[in-house]
């Protein structure tokens, strides 16, 4: 001992200095985790679902930003500015001159890139002349990160002076508090640095561990230095005094640390692994403090002994003998009061209204309350629920069924979307408007996708995806047959022949885009004549330009004009003029009369000429011709297999046939009639050839009327792969629901459970569900069992440690009952003041309060039993109070101040609540230990003597 702290003291100091420097460099490398779902058991439904979600789609963060009184121009500009790196999508929703930007991040809410996005967005929004409100887990995480980084140093700066003041009051040296603070401060740095070797540390652990370590572990250095002071008072030289103090204080220091660690070890057995996180870090902190006190503190005492010796002052905290007398007089009163309070505490703490998500308290911070309230009042809640199911299942009916789930006839699903869900125009518009599609584009999209079924009023993303795949082929060169097949996907009309387009473009393979461009390009008369040269006459072409009064027209306009021209109803005079008097007026009159028409179009005449008729119908038309001739002609045509189905033929076929084969049987009037018809058929045959040419192209021009090229360009901007990848993975697809409910209240729990039950019915196959509310339910179900496990383990461990230390059954029973009673009283306060209590905090604080404050009871009991060997139980009670009061008040005051400072200074609500519970719990524990415990020890003296191995109690007591 002398050798180790004599010759090796500088080496020990040097090793600790190296460790401190290393820890300082490691502290920034600690991975702080804000995602509490990571601590769920591996077999929890939420954890399993998150693993599948991550492997299939990744996890995306989500932000909402609302801006009030904003103009449309700025909305577009701001949206573009918000679309920065690591932002996947920005949706907008408008309402009452407000806009809500719904931002999907590339990575999860807790990823460093997501935090960078939040920072950059806030920096940008701060430059605008608009009030904005922002919420979402990514923002919450960013905000916490800032607050914790700022507030831990601030809390420590407040804490250190107060603790030094407490230590100055309770010690006899001005330098002792500095030594205590230095020792614990070093152990805190070592603990924080070694956290870098852990996979991550929860933000709660990171925020409270340093402060709690400072408060809980101060005892160890106090015990050692006080023993050293006592040994020096015995006249021992420095080295011998230190050696004796080290040996005599080693066991109580280790025992004290073990009871503290026992509380932390207990929460490591929680299935909800945040207990393991808190337990490991705080247990490690206690052990590092123990190592620092045992090895470094003796070296520093030797190095700074002269300074420590010079700083003596009169003890400011004086012991009051009247207090001992007061406790003796009330020795039966306060235990009864304590029993009543503990019983009441046990009852009321069971009535606590628990919340299971740290976000519930997180959103009670002033900033989050304002932001959440503003956004919620304007746009409601946009909680997301993701359902993962086999990718081959049609989800249309599933979405419809889920949207009908209700509580008291109220459904909370605002919208649902999946790859195969059928959506109306408004629903699809919500999804596609982010790609710049107008209402016209959407209407065109519906018309094209549903071209085979015009009654269908919905479209799925799967339909859209298939359409986009075809759209990508618009630049592919195809043969005429391939083109006809390709056009069927887009157009429900008739396109029988497109050879003319290929002839006009003089190519065997053309792309649809080339055809559309060709038909919609404007040409002057010379260019149009060049295109249709040899096919249409120059007069036909000039006629279109003259009529349209344009110097340039598109082929589509040219075809439309000719179609209109050939379809125009004309009387006999107008028809003669159109035909340039190539046919006698009386012949046209005869033609109109035979068909029983006053007006006709050229197209109608050609149709009549080509219409299949029976012999009877033909004889009715040519009533002035011998019907036998028509019968003979039909008979011959039938023998030649020329008649069509139903023994029909056309005027165009019959007239030339009769004239060529039965001319000698015709009278003069009939010959004249047939000659006139032949002349007309030759003339109209020329028009028929033009119509056939025009019809070849006309099908495509009609298609262009329905197929908007500008919309097509917009569609091409939509990445089909992104749409499909958003909803369909390797094995699973996902349904995304937006639900207007907070993450944690009874309505939310009931509604989500109904949704889950409905899903189990609709999807008997394997499926997974991810939602914040379901995560909370998982935490609730996991934590409820954890409390009993943690309490039993902590009580058993503490009981065993105390039993071994005191070789007694009574002492651990008394201490555990009283300290657990203090915990019950502490935890009943939230129920009495109607304040919600985070269950996780309830559990953690209970274990911390047990492990940290039972030391006070151990110290008081130790002094009572030691003094009881030589003194009466009354004297022993007084001496126990006298010898332990200062240490208990010192340690208790430090823990109280540390906890309450966390409660007052921290802007992180959950951290503040934990701090208040710890601070108030310390006050209650200290009060019970210094008031009730001495009295219980006095009352239970006989029981203690009988259950303590070789108690050595003085048998007679006054």
Describe the structure.
The protein is rod-shaped and about 160 Å long. The strands form 5 sheets. It has a 4-stranded antiparallel sheet with strand order 3-4-2-5, with helices on both faces. Helices cover 67% and strands 7% of the residues. The protein is an alpha+beta fold and 958 residues long. The model has no long low-confidence stretch (mean pLDDT 83). The longest helix is centred in the last third of the chain and has 39 residues, at 668-706. Helix 6 runs antiparallel to helix 7 (176-194). The chain starts with a helix and ends in an 11-residue tail after the last helix. 40% of the residues are buried.
Could you give a short description of this structure?
The protein is an alpha+beta fold.
Distance between the termini: 44 Å
The side-by-side strand order for the widest beta sheet comes to 3-4-2-5
Model regions low in confidence, pLDDT < 50 over at least 5 residues: none
Helical content stands at 55-70%
Count of individual beta strands = 14
User: What number is the mean pLDDT?
Assistant: 83
């Amino acid at each position: 001992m002398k050798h180790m702290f004599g010759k090796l003291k500088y080496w020990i100091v040097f090793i600790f200095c190296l460790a401190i420097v290393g820890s300082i460099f490691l502290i920034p490398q600690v991975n702080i985790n804000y995602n509490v779902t990571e601590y769920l058991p591996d077999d929890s439904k939420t954890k399993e679902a998150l693993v599948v979600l991550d492997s299939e789609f990744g996890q995306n963060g989500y932000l909402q930003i609302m801006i009030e009184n904003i103009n449309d121009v700025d909305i577009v500009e701001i949206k573009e500015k918000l679309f920065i790196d690591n932002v996947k999508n920005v949706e907008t929703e408008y309402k009452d001159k407000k806009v809500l930007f719904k931002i999907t991040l590339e990575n999860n809410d807790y990823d460093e890139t997501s935090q960078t996005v939040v920072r950059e967005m806030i920096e940008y929004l701060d430059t605008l002349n608009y009030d904005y409100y922002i919420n979402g887990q990514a923002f919450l995480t960013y905000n916490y990160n800032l607050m914790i980084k700022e507030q831990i140093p601030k809390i420590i700066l407040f804490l250190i002076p107060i603790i030094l003041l407490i230590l100055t009051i309770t010690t006899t040296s001005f330098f002792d508090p500095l030594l205590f603070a230095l020792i614990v401060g070093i152990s805190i740095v070592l603990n924080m640095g070694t956290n870098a070797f852990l996979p991550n540390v929860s933000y709660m652990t990171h925020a409270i561990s340093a402060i709690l370590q400072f408060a809980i572990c101060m005892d160890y250095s106090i015990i050692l230095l006080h023993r050293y002071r006592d040994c020096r008072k015995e006249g021992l030289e420095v080295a011998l005094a230190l050696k004796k103090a080290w040996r005599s204080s080693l066991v109580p220091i280790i025992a004290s640390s073990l009871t503290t660690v026992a509380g932390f070890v207990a929460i490591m057995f929680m299935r909800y692994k945040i207990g393991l996180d808190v337990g490991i870090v705080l247990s490690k902190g206690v052990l590092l403090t123990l190592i620092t006190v045992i090895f470094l503190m003796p070296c520093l005492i030797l190095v700074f002994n002269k300074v420590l010796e010079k700083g003596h002052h009169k003890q400011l905290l004086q012991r009051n003998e009247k207090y001992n007398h007061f406790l003796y007089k009330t020795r039966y009163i306060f235990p009864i009061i304590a029993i009543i309070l503990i019983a009441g505490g046990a009852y009321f703490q069971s009535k606590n209204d628990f919340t299971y998500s740290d976000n519930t308290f997180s959103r009670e911070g002033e900033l989050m309350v304002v932001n959440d309230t503003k956004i919620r009042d304007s746009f409601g809640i946009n909680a997301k629920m993701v359902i993962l199911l086999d990718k081959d299942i049609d989800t249309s009916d599933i979405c419809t069924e889920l949207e009908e789930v209700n509580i008291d006839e109220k459904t909370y699903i605002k919208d649902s979307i999946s790859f195969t869900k059928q959506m109306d125009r408004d629903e699809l518009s919500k999804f596609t408007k982010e790609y710049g599609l107008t209402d016209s584009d959407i209407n065109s999209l519906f018309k094209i996708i549903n071209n085979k079924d015009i009654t269908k009023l919905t479209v799925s993303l799967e339909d859209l995806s298939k359409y986009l795949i075809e759209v990508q082929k618009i630049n592919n060169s195809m043969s005429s047959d391939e083109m006809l097949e390709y056009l069927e996907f887009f157009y429900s009309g008739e396109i029988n022949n497109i050879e003319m387009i290929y002839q006009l473009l003089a190519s065997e393979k053309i792309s649809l885009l080339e055809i559309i461009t060709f038909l919609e390009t404007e040409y002057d008369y010379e260019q149009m004549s060049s295109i249709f040269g040899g096919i249409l006459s120059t007069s036909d072409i000039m006629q279109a330009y003259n009529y349209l009064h344009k110097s340039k027209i598109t082929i589509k306009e040219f075809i439309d004009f000719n179609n209109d021209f050939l379809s125009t109803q004309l009387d006999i005079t107008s028809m003669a003029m159109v035909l340039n008097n190539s046919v006698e007026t009386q012949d046209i009159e005869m033609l109109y009369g035979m068909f029983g028409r006053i007006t006709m179009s050229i197209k109608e005449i050609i149709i009549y000429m080509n219409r299949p008729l029976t012999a009877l119908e033909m004889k009715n038309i040519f009533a002035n011709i011998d019907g036998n001739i028509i019968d003979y002609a039909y008979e011959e045509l039938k023998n030649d297999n020329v008649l069509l189905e139903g023994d029909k033929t056309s005027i165009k076929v019959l007239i030339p046939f009769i004239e060529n084969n039965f001319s000698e049987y015709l009278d003069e009037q009939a010959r004249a009639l047939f000659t006139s018809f032949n002349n007309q058929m030759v003339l109209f045959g020329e028009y028929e050839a033009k119509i056939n040419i025009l019809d070849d192209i006309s099908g495509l021009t009609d298609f262009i009327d329905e197929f908007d090229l500008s919309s097509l360009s917009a569609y091409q901007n939509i990445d089909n792969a992104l749409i499909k990848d958003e909803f369909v993975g390797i094995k699973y697809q996902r349904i995304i629901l937006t639900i207007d409910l907070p993450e944690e209240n009874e309505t939310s729990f009931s509604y989500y459970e109904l949704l889950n039950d409905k899903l189990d019915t609709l999807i008997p196959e394997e499926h997974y569900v991810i939602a914040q509310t379901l995560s909370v339910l998982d935490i609730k179900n996991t934590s409820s069992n954890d409390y009993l496990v943690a309490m039993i383990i902590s009580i058993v461990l503490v009981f065993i440690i105390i039993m071994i230390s005191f070789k007694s059954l009574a002492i651990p029973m008394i201490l555990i009952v009283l300290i657990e009673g203090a915990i019950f009283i502490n935890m009943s306060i939230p129920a009495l003041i109607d304040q919600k209590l985070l269950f996780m905090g309830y559990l953690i604080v209970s274990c911390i309060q047990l492990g940290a404050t039972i030391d006070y009871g151990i110290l008081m009991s130790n002094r009572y039993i030691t003094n009881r060997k030589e003194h009466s139980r009354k004297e022993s009670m007084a001496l126990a109070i006298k010898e332990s009061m200062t240490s208990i008040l010192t340690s208790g005051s430090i823990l109280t101040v540390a906890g309450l400072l966390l409660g007052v200074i921290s802007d992180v609500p959950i951290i503040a609540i934990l701090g208040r519970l710890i601070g108030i719990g310390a006050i209650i524990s200290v009060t019970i230990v210094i008031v009730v415990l001495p009295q219980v020890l006095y009352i239970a003296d006989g029981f203690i003597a009988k259950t303590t191995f070789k108690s050595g109690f003085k048998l007679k007591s006054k």
